[in-house]
Write a structure and sequence with these properties.
The complex is a heterodimer. Chain A has 17 helices and 21 strands. Chain A is of the alpha/beta class. In chain B, 46% of the residues lie in helices and 14% in strands. Chain B has helices at residues 6-19, 27-34, 38-50, and strands spanning 23-25, 54-57, 64-67. A three-stranded antiparallel sheet of chain B has the order 1-3-2. Classes of the chains: A alpha/beta, B alpha+beta. The complex binds adenosine-5'-diphosphate (ADP) and magnesium ion (MG).
Chain lengths: 473, 76
């Protein structure tokens, strides 16, 4: 099956089991002001910035200049993306668009090819037909076929004229999926925004309404709690617990294979038990691991901590379940020698190739057997040893690769030591962020981003005598 | 009809395409966007095409005008 296409809205991707089916045309309907334009643009912005997939926004009535300006409120610089040829906000009349879409070598095909466009938003499909005669209805069908032929994953926005009545129109039959946005009265005085997926070809959908907010970062959807719990109970085998009870609850069972998490810690925070517990659980689940030895601790420390969690690291090494990357030449425990890959002589240019040579054959053979891999990187060590631009490039590639092959990534990083732009980039690119910091006499932990769109409040970390040696309160 | 409207309309059109560099419009479509009549715009558009500020695709009333972006001229 083709990889789903992420919508850029974490909660929605959770409901869709990863994203829209590749090549699908999804109808997004709602009354004016419900957030269709925002949702459409978030889909393209995410595609362009995270997945490096080019997108086209076709607008019939609203002018691009207005859209550029409105989207700046979410920090989305669309003109910059246009300069990078990752986006175009095209204004055109519906009749001319259709004519050009149907014409061989027409404008639409030309632009799609020139940009290597993967994603399209049409604002709005309502304007491409009058809904009355059969010929005009055929246009919707025609457009869907053209989009499908060009393998474009697309959102067809539809203005709902009467929000009180949910009419079923021709578009609903033709579209591969239907998402309905609504603004409803809530407890007399308030209004709440809800999203409902009423159809999605090839995807088991979780029925019901989910609340979303429009925040200064775009649409933020919170999957309805009951459903999240249902799925947590389903004991998805690809989700490995962290071993820290409260954290597993917050993450709906643990960390799913193929996701990338950042553990952001300030220098005073003690993360060794958090990392230790996560790492031990991956080994206990039978995963194979690659980890970077941080500058401030050694493999002797790792071995000792794993022993506390009941894992014999030497045995894991001997079974080929643990490999280590080290930027420094230093002693390793006996028996670890062949598992340590020394990086101190490897240049930035050779880095990927070198690792591919060392680990590629091992990883490939094991993936054929269906084994899962887990990698742990210390970005602060990488920042100091290799510099910012290397880390950004490396990180983006690694996250893509992780998703493609189902590798799970945990990245240790201290946001306070890197610039805002880089930390925003890292945060955007990964699926989850766990922060831990020290304030006065206490240490805290907070999940600030998760694959299902839920955030936690700051929790206190309490040290306890038995595994996992910490408890979140 | 005096020609004095040509220069201001020319600027209006150029500005529209600068602000919306990926607009693809027919004469009628553009007239609607700018709130002008096609009769007034026709000559202006021809002029902008001659000046290479705009590109024209096709002929007649279905001809499509688009912006010749300064940084894209050498590309296409
Ligand atoms: N920064 C923001 N924070 C909260 N709400 C916002 C923000 N920016 C826009 N909105 C809301 O988003 C809505 C506009 O959404 P839009 O995507 O244009 O809707 P549609 O395309 O469905 O008409 C408006 O109702 C506005 O109140
Ligand atoms: Mg809109």
């Amino acid at each position: 099956m083709k990889r789903p296409v992420a919508s850029g809205i974490a909660g929605l991707d959770y409901l869709l089991h990863g994203g829209f089916p590749a090549g699908a045309s999804v109808l997004v309907e709602g009354a004016p002001g419900t957030g269709k334009t925002t949702l459409g643009m978030q889909f393209l912005y995410h595609g362009a910035t995270v997945d490096k997939e080019a997108g086209i926004y076709l607008t019939f009535e609203e002018l691009p200049e207005q859209i550029y300006e409105d989207m700046l409120a979410f920090g989305w610089d669309l003109r910059q993306l246009e300069k990078e040829n990752l986006l175009r906000v095209i204004c055109i009349s519906p009749e001319i668009l259709l004519e050009q879409m149907m014409q061989p070598e027409g404008l639409f095909e030309q632009i799609v090819r020139e940009m290597n466009c993967r994603r399209v938003v049409i604002d709005s499909i309502s304007l491409m037909h009058d809904g009355l005669d059969a010929e005009s209805r055929k246009n919707v069908y025609r457009i869907r076929n053209i989009l499908r032929k060009l393998s474009l994953t697309s959102l067809l926005l539809r203005e709902q004229t009467d929000p009180e009545r949910t009419e079923i129109t021709y578009e609903h039959y033709v579209a591969d999926g239907v998402i309905r946005l609504a603004l409803q009265k809530h407890m007399e005085k308030y209004r709440k925004r809800t999203l409902e997926i009423t159809k999605m070809r090839g995807t088991r959908i979780l029925e019901g309404e989910h609340v979303y907010r429009i925040t200064d970062k775009g649409i933020h959807l919170i999957p309805a709690l009951s459903m999240v719990e249902d799925r947590g109970l389903r004991k998805d085998v690809s989700v490995v617990p962290t071993g820290i009870a409260r954290l597993d609850e917050l993450l709906c069972g643990g960390i799913a294979s193929g996701t990338a998490f950042i553990l952001d810690t300030n220098s005073k925070a003690n993360y060794k038990y958090i990392m230790g517990s996560i790492f031990a659980q991956r080994l206990l689940a039978g995963e194979r691991t690659i980890s970077m030895v941080p500058s401030i601790s050694t493999l002797f420390d790792s071995k000792r901590i794993m022993a506390l969690f009941g894992v014999d690291l030497l045995e894991a090494v001997e079974q080929g379940k643990a490999y280590f990357l080290d930027h420094f030449e230093r002693p390793a425990p006996k028996g670890f020698e062949q598992a340590v890959i020394q990086l101190n002589h490897v240049s930035d240019e050779e880095y990927h190739q070198y690792l591919d040579e060392k680990l590629g054959p091992i990883v490939n053979e094991s993936r054929d057997k269906g084994e899962n891999w887990f990698a742990y990187y210390d970005l602060n060590t990488m920042f100091s040893e290799r510099g910012k631009s290397f880390v950004k490039r490396f990180f983006a590639e690694e996250v893509n690769r992780a998703r493609a092959v189902g590798l799970t990534l945990i990245i240790l990083c201290n946001f306070a030591e890197i610039d805002d732009e880089t930390s925003a980039f890292l945060e955007r690119t990964c699926n989850g962020v766990i922060r831990t910091w020290v304030d006065g006499a206490y240490q805290y932990l907070q999940v600030t981003k998760s694959p299902h769109g839920r955030m936690s409040e700051p929790l206190l970390i309490e040290n306890i005598a038995e595994k996992p040696f910490i408890r979140l309160i | 009809m005096s020609d004095s409207y040509i220069v201001p309309l020319q600027m209006e059109c150029t500005l529209f395409f600068q602000m919306n560099p990926h607009a693809y419009e027919t004469l009628d479509g553009l007239a609607l966007r700018l709130g002008r009549t096609p009769e007034h715009l026709d000559q202006v558009l021809q002029k902008l095409v001659t000046l290479s500020i705009l590109k024209r695709m096709g002929e007649g009333e279905r001809a499509i005008y688009s912006y010749n972006q300064p940084d894209m001229i050498h590309v296409s």
